[in-house]
Amino acid sequence: MNPMPPPTGTGSAAGRPPYPDLTLASAPVPALTRAFLPAHVRATARFTAPAQVRMLGLLQVSTYRGPARSFVRSTEDTTEPHLTLGVHSSGRATLVRGDGTTACRPDDIFVCDHAVPFLLHESVDFELHLVRIPRIALTLTDRQVRALSARAPFADGPVAPLLGPLLRGLLDTLPAYPPATALRLATTVTGFVGSLAAEGPGHGQDVEDTVDVARPEGAAGAEPASGPAQEHQDLLWRVRAYVDARLWDRTLTPATIAAAQHISVRYLHKLFEGQGSTIGRWIQHRRLEEARRELARPEAWDVAVGAVAKRWGFANATHFSRSFRAAYGMSPREWRNRTRPSEDPASGDG
Q1: Where is the signal peptide, in residue numbers (predicted)?
Q2: CATH code that applies to domain 31-197
């Protein structure tokens, strides 16, 4: 029996065909599976019907339902870079990814990079949602993507306990939202994924150029620490919170930040050297991200690009546009047009 062809679906609101990146198959069993699953499991593998494919703003949602011993796997993909966010509404599975296998429990979330094939072997009857998120919709560095997609399926930490129930509640029904509502919901999901990347596998800060907010004392998942290392980390959180509250201020400089925190400019730079970044790069990254989010909000579609740039601390629209293109590979206007749903009434499929 040959593998089933890629699933077909409803397509996007703009009429694009759904991405054919996922199939359910039983034979031939991929080499990846043969390497890790025992013969008696491979011999009894089954397949079910193709996925139900729906769109939520810029996100593609593929929902699979099937019997025990089904395989759900990625296939060769030539479309834009993306991440796949997975969550079960019911069932449990073995996730085969790269050169290892891990258990995927009912409450677990997992993330896969499009460049690394993955496969799920479902051990009981199941319902699975796979959410395809374009990389352009996420302001993540390559290092963050590698770290996030290498994490074993998880349900703990500050973010996953919030995101898991939200995804299941949203995706189990996924009605035909109006385009503006669908876009807001998609933005919420991508924001959570950015927070997953920022928390890191140990629920701490993972990296260069990440988006952070002030961490409240006693936050879930925070690891207790003491001494100079804890003081250093607390200071870093305070600096980031201070900057986040003043992104609009074009006079924000290392000197003004250091003075507000009662430290030297030299020590401020050393704080960010340990994060693989600089304070200047981090400020620009945060300004670009907030401006990008505003450009995609329906209520801001009539606001001039230059006004958005000014609101987030850029000196002029030219500098903003040049920086935006360097970061995201397109102009602010192109990004806004891409996120704006078609005016066609049929686009209400969400």
Answers
A1: none
A2: 2.60.120.10
